[in-house]
Structures are given as C-alpha cells and as structure tokens.
Design a protein that fits this description.
Strand 5, helix 4 and strand 6 form a beta-alpha-beta unit. The longest helix has 14 residues. Helix 8 runs parallel beside helix 9. By secondary structure, the chain is of the alpha/beta class. It has one domain: 4-Layer Sandwich (Metallo-beta-lactamase, Chain A). The chain starts with a strand and ends with a strand. Strands 6-5-4-3-2-1-14 form a 7-stranded mixed beta sheet. It has a 7-stranded mixed beta sheet with strand order 7-8-9-10-11-12-13. The chain is built from 9 helices and 14 strands.
C-alpha cells in the first residue's frame, strides 16, 4: 500500500491510497477538476479510483465528492449522520454506503477501521487502513480537537500516520483571526496544534513507525518549517529515524510506501 496526499489544508483535503488492486480517495474537498489534475500529476488514471470515503461534512472535505462520484460512477462511503447533513451539497449519486464508527469493514483488499474523533461537526470519522495479510497500518488523523484515549489506542501500532499539525499556538493567538475563531480552533472540538501533535507522538512512538506526514497545516497560523522543526525535536529526543513529510495545500506529496 502506498499513499499520495493530493491536498491538505483549510482550502481542501484529499488523500489517494493505492493498494495491490484498488485505488481509493479519502475525502474529496477540492474541485473535481483539481482532483483530476492532481491524479494526473500522480500518474494515476482517474478511472482506477473505486470509492470515496468521507471523514466529515465540512466543505474542505466534500467539495468535489459528488462531482467525482458521478463522473466516475463510484460509491461514497460515510457514516449516516455525516451524509445526512452533507447530502444536499454532495448532490445525487448512484450509490452510498454507510459505516459506523467502531465497526471495521472491508472494501476489496482493504480493511478499514473508522473511529470517532472530536471535532465541530456532526460525527467525524478518522481511519485505520491496512491490506489483508499485511502488518503495515496507515492511520489518518486530522480535524481532531484533542487526543482521546481511543485515538492513542488506534494509532499506537501504525506504520504510517497522517497527523494533523494545524497551528502554532503563539501564531494563532497573536494572529489576525477574530477571538471566536481562535477559540474554535484551539478548543477540544477544533484542530491539533504543533505542540499537541508532538505530545501525541511522544506518547505512542514505537520502533515500527516508518512515516509521519504532518497535515492540515494552517496557511495563516503555521509554517511548514515550524511544524517540521517541532516534530524533529521529538524524534531526536527518542532517537527515532522515521521519515517526516509535510503535506501541503497546493502540491501533492510524492508517493509514500506505508
């Protein structure tokens, strides 16, 4: 299994996952046109995409979902409450499948374990994903207000983590956002800061962790070099040599082997 983060940030999110036989998208929060362009950049035939899995209903996660689903005639997977509040914006699609957080299911060669994450939406879902007969596990953890016990349990044995590192606390507090928005971002239903992401990693870091991809960085309240420097301090503290990547809003990452 390998991954390419097509886009990550407040203007839109989408992750491409490629298995032995199947390609899927986690979220489609950029326009259908941009998704097609980014798939072409990753040298993936868009007709090879077999499904879209939705984390939650915010527009930066569903903007292109309906367009891509209709264009490619592929299903959307979401928890029921998320789809109910998102269906008007997604529009009519051929097929929708509902999953429940906490109940693993399979899609072709993938085992997918959705789990609940605190965020200011109807019901956020993050995912642990693996291929059958493989010990490698990918965890996608973004749009989380804080690290719950469940989150720590889900990510502790992963080989690759796509981890939210949304904001630098000082930049957020001293930045231009109005106070109500600052409070929302730093609340328990907001977004993980650089320091929260580092604290989480210090608790669950293990020898078999191969990749960390820092994601959903705020363009206003963070800088890639700040997030990367803070996480490097944690890795150095524990003498860990895993790969560290930064996902960006505009440029897809290279392919990363899970």
């Amino acid at each position: 299994m390998k991954i390419c983060v097509l886009a990550s940030g407040s203007k839109g999110n989408s992750i491409l996952i490629s298995g032995i036989q199947t390609n899927i998208l986690i979220d489609a929060g950029i326009s259908g046109k941009k998704i097609s362009e980014k798939l072409n950049y990753a040298k993936v035939d868009e007709n090879s995409i077999k499904a879209i899995f939705i984390t939650h209903e915010h527009s930066d996660h569903i903007k292109g979902a309906g367009v891509i689903s209709r264009k490619l005639k592929i299903p959307i997977f979401a928890n029921k409450s998320t789809f109910q509040v998102a269906k008007n914006r997604i529009g009519k699609v051929e097929s929708v499948y509902f999953f429940e957080n906490g109940n693993p299911f399979t899609f072709n060669e993938f085992l997918i374990e959705p789990f609940s994450v605190p965020h200011d939406c109807e019901e956020n879902s993050c995912f642990k994903i693996s291929e059958r007969n493989s010990k490698k596990k990918l965890v996608i953890l973004t749009d989380a207000g804080y690290s719950t016990r469940l989150i720590k349990e889900k990510i502790k044995n992963s080989s690759t983590i796509i981890l939210e590192s949304n904001h630098d606390f000082d930049k957020l507090i001293n930045g231009p956002y109005d106070w109500s928005l600052k409070q929302r971002i730093k609340s328990n239903n907001g977004h993980l800061s650089n320091s929260q992401a580092c604290e989480l990693m210090s608790e669950i870091i293990h020898p078999n962790l191969e990749n960390i991809i820092l994601a959903h960085l705020s363009e206003e309240n963070n800088k890639p070099e700040i997030a990367k420097s803070e996480m490097h301090k944690i890795l150095n503290k524990y003498g860990h040599k895993c790969n560290l990547f930064i996902a960006s809003q505009n440029e897809p990452t290279d392919w990363i082997e899970v």
